[in-house]
Structure formats: C-alpha cells, structure tokens
UniProtKB/TrEMBL annotation:
Natural source organism: Acer yangbiense
Protein name (record): tryptophan synthase
Coiled coil: none
InterPro entries in alphabetical order: Trp_synth_b-like, Trp_synth_b_CS, Trp_synth_beta, Trp_synth_beta/beta-like, TrpB-like_PALP, TrpB-like_PALP_sf
Pathway annotation from the record: Amino-acid biosynthesis; L-tryptophan biosynthesis; L-tryptophan from chorismate: step 5/5
Domain (Tryptophan synthase beta chain-like PALP): residue spans on this chain: 122-460
Keyword entries, A-Z: Amino-acid biosynthesis, Aromatic amino acid biosynthesis, Lyase, Pyridoxal phosphate, Tryptophan biosynthesis
Family of the protein in this entry: Belongs to the TrpB family.
One GO cellular component term: cytoplasm
Cofactor requirements of the protein: pyridoxal 5'-phosphate
Catalytic activity of the protein: (1S,2R)-1-C-(indol-3-yl)glycerol 3-phosphate + L-serine = D-glyceraldehyde 3-phosphate + L-tryptophan + H2O
UniProt keyword Repeat present: no
Pfam families in UniProt: PALP (PF00291)
Protein's job: The beta subunit is responsible for the synthesis of L-tryptophan from indole and L-serine.
C-alpha cells in the first residue's frame, strides 16, 4: 500500500490526527498503523509517516459565524442608559476594535490570525473519543462520542477564546486585562493567554468559588494574574454589595460589574468576557469545525448533540457548525442544551432584555435570564452559575433549532462517577450535566433498542474541582430546590424595555 508523509511544523503544527475506527492525538499513538513516530521535547510536535488510510486533521483556519446563516437575525444589544441599539464607540472603553467588529459581524467566516493559530497548535486539534467503556457499562446500543477540550494548558475549552481576545488587545497596545471568573476555568485561561502576550491580568473570582478552589487561584497567580474575591472592597460595585450583605457569596453578575468598572476607569485597561458575547461563541467554533471532520473520519453522523449550558460558549462552539449543516439539509441532529436545576435560565427564565451584570453597567442583551441580580445558592457545586444565557444561543433556542433540559446536581455527579470509573477522565463540574443527559439518552436507547449516535461536549477536566466530588462521595451533596418566589423577585427588577 502506498505511503504518505506529513510534518508537524511550526507555527501551524498538525499535532493531532484521526484514524477511522480509533482515536489518535499527539503523543497517544495507541492502536494505530504507525510506521514510526518521533516525539520531540515538547511532546506533541514530531515528524511521522503513516499508511495512506490515515488522514491528518488540521486546525481550522477560520471561525464560523452562525448569524450569517440565520434567516432571522438576533436582536441588537441596547445601551444601558438610552436603551437604544449600542454603537461601536459605546463599546470602545471595554473592548479593542477588532473584537467590537467581530461582535457585530455578519460575515460567514472570519480568518484566525497566524499568531493565534500558532498558540492553538499547543493543544489543537483536540481529540474526539468514543466512550466504549461507558457504553458497555450502560449496556446500550447507542454509540457515544465525546469531544474532549481538557487537553488545553488550562484544562478546558476557554483558551479557545482567551488567546484571540488577548491577542487583539495586545495588537491595540492594551497593557492590562480585567475579568471575572466563577469556577476559575475562565480566569485561569485568561491568565495563561496574558502570560503569553506579556499583558497584566486582574481577576475577580466569585467569593464562594474563591474559598472552595484555592488551587484555581494559585493556577492564575502562577501565570501572573492578580486575583480578588468578589464582591471586593476595591470597587464601588463590590462595596455596595458588601454593605447590603457582608457575607455575600458573590455571583458572576457581581464579579462582572467589578471588572467592568475597573476597565471603564482606566484607559490602558480592557475587559474580557469568557462566554455570552457573539465574538466569544465565534472563537469557540473551532471545536465544532474539527468535530465535523472527525465524525466524518469515524464514518458517523450524530443523531443527538449534547452540551452543558451556563453562559453557552461550550455548547455553541460544538453545535453551531453542526447547525449550519442542519440548516443546509445535510444532517438533522437534535441539539440539546443541559443546564443545572439550580440556575436554569433557558428552562425557567424569561426571554427579554436584561443587563449582563448585577450593577447594570453593561449593555442590555435580549436573552433567557433569571434576572441580573439572581445569585445561585453557594452550595451549588456544578458550575454554570450565570444568570443569563448567551443572546445568540437564546435566539437559536427561540427559533427552535435546539432544545433544553435541566438536571439536579446529584444526578450530574452520579453520572460523572460512572464516566470517571469507565473512561478514566474526571470531568469538571460543568460537563457533568452533559454526561448525565447522555446517560439518560443512552439508557433510553437500551429500552428502545435504537443505536443512536450521541455526540457530547466534554469541555474540561475536574482536577481542581475535587472538593465537589468529595462532597458527593461523602453523601453531603443535596439537590437544591428552585424557589419560584426568589425568581419572581429577581425578574421583577429586569428593566422594562420595548424594542
């Protein structure tokens, strides 16, 4: 049989490849038809020769913008004071020009900068893995695949957008980036990206998470970031919250208010957001673009695509390229968003204009929201704590292109334990929701005999989230009751906007 050779070459290394019927990425060259594989000191960049049936998988060169293919465009964000559609200059105190342009773009594809592709090559393409051991454990005819983003330096999908966001800020001469973080996945990813481009990084971490996850804070500090518990006494927004509730556990909405306040007051400082906004979802589509090709290499077409949904970037990143193919009539998968029962913006919230932060400093976005001052219970262990869903994802949901369910945290962690003990990977709390929903679907297939192909978003590992697992394993984790009265009180404070 004829042979072909290819090189993993800087700055765009083909650091992963896909073998039909098996999974191969970077250094894990098990069960492949490899002639030889020479590993270099960084572990994943090497020269290799393969049999002709092995197709190299390249890092996508463009991000995909779903807005271009939607017949009904999403509603615009509104200015927080005038309630009129936001103008580019209104966003300039917070974001660099390139990201403002991407936020409002209707272009179908946007080129990924050379410098960003070079850094993506540290971990991309990421593996698509068939969960054969989980299938066996569940005794299901379903075929389960998961796209694993935990191989990034920060351990999640978040660097997919952290790197380009910091790159564009660096290009514009910004000296420091500020942000918020909940579980710490986003804060650590931004700290990582800032360390590569030499920018300062300051992070407001939700107080409940700051106390529960000291190693996430240390991870950020190792990459050079300065980390504050939120609410803090540093900002006016934080001081106002502490005056009302000195023991406030914090929320992402509060932390966003603090970071935005600091960015707006300092000319050399910009703000970065890890989810929700259009440009963030855009950057994450590298996940789905890779996965389309990987599923094709496996000879499979997903019947159902499942992803956890908090702010929405992980689910959007995987699903939007598949929705493009669905809109063109090529495939017809069910897209299922899974959110925590403790913070169910899609399934319990309302679709309306609301602030993206607690203090009302950000533009109003039309999204599914529980109210901008909604604060999840601090005993909620499963991540995904944001009060609203990404406006574009909310719009797609309203158009009927996806469905949503919510799952309580004990079922999520039960599924995570099954996954860890069969597949070996310990999931972050966020993807436990997708795992639990996948197990539900796989068990339905066992009852019906359907051999569905299930594609799941596995957005990160849980190595810094083991206190949640300890709580579950010791029997101390409880399901939170969703208080309708609390939501009514929060929703009552949403501004009444007619647009």
């Amino acid at each position: 049989m004829a042979k072909q050779s290819f090189y993993y070459a800087d700055p765009l290394p083909l650091s992963r490849t896909q073998v039909k019927g098996e999974q191969l990425f970077g250094c894990s060259a098990l069960k492949t038809k490899t002639k030889h594989l020479r590993l270099l000191s960084n572990g994943c960049r090497a020269r290799a020769s393969w049999n002709a049936d092995v197709k190299p998988l390249e890092i996508p060169r463009q991000w995909y913008n779903l807005i271009a293919d939607l017949s009904v465009k999403p509603p615009p964000p509104l200015h927080p004071k005038t309630f009129e559609p936001i103008k580019p200059e209104d966003l300039s105190p917070l974001f660099p020009d390139a990201l403002i342009k991407q936020e409002a773009s209707n272009d179908r594809f946007i080129d990924i900068p050379y410098e960003v592709l070079d850094i993506y090559g540290l971990w991309r393409p990421t593996p698509l893995i068939r969960a054969k051991r989980l299938e066996k454990l569940l005794d299901t005819p379903a075929r389960i695949y998961y796209k694993y983003e935990g191989v990034s330096p920060a351990g999640s999908h978040k660097p997919n957008t952290a790197v380009p966001q910091v790159y564009y800020n660096a290009q514009q001469g910004v000296k420091k980036i500020v942000t918020e973080t909940g579980a710490g996945q986003w804060g650590s990813s931004l700290a990582f990206a800032c360390s590569l481009f030499g920018l300062g990084c300051e992070v407001w971490q939700v107080r409940a998470s700051f106390d529960q996850k000291p190693y996430r804070r240390l991870m950020m500090e190792t990459w050079g970031a300065k980390v504050h518990p939120s609410p803090s006494s540093i900002t006016e927004a934080g001081r106002n919250i502490l005056q009302m509730d000195p023991s406030s556990p914090g929320s992402l909405g509060i932390a966003i208010s603090e970071a935005v306040e600091v960015a707006a007051m300092n000319a050399d400082t910009k703000y970065c957001l890890g989810s929700v906004l259009n440009h963030v979802l855009l950057h994450q589509t590298v996940i789905g673009e890779e996965c389309l090709k990987q599923m094709e290499a496996f000879g499979e077409t997903p019947d159902i695509i499942i992803g956890c949904a908090g702010g929405g970037s992980n689910l959007a990143g995987l699903s939007f390229p598949f929705i493009r193919e669905k809109l063109s009539g090529k495939i017809n998968p069910v897209i299922r968003a899974v959110e925590p029962a403790a913070c169910p913006s899609l399934t319990k919230g309302v679709y309306t204009y609301d602030y993206g932060d607690t203090a009302g400093m950000t533009p109003l976005m039309k999204m599914h929201t529980l109210g901008h001052d909604f604060i999840p219970d601090p005993i909620h262990a499963g991540g995904l704590r944001y009060h609203g869903m990404a406006p574009l994802l909310s719009h797609v949901y309203e158009l009927g292109h996806m469905e949503a369910i919510s799952i309580p945290q004990t079922e999520c962690f039960q599924g995570a334990i099954q996954f860890a003990r069969s597949e070996g990977l310990i999931p972050a709390p966020e993807p436990t929701h997708a795992i639990a929903a996948t197990i539900r679907e796989a068990l339905r297939c066992r009852e019906t005999g359907e051999a569905k192909v299930i594609l799941m978003a596995m957005c990160g590992h849980g190595h810094f989230d083991l206190t949640a697992y300890e709580k579950y394993l010791q029997g101390n984790m409880v399901d939170l009751s969703f208080e309708e009265e609390n939501i009514k009180e929060s929703l009552a404070k949403i501004p009444q906007v007619i647009y």
